[in-house]
Amino acid sequence: FKGFGIPELLATASFGHLLGAGVILGLGNAGVL
Question: How far apart are CA 1 and CA 9, in angstroms?
Answer without folding.
Answer: 9
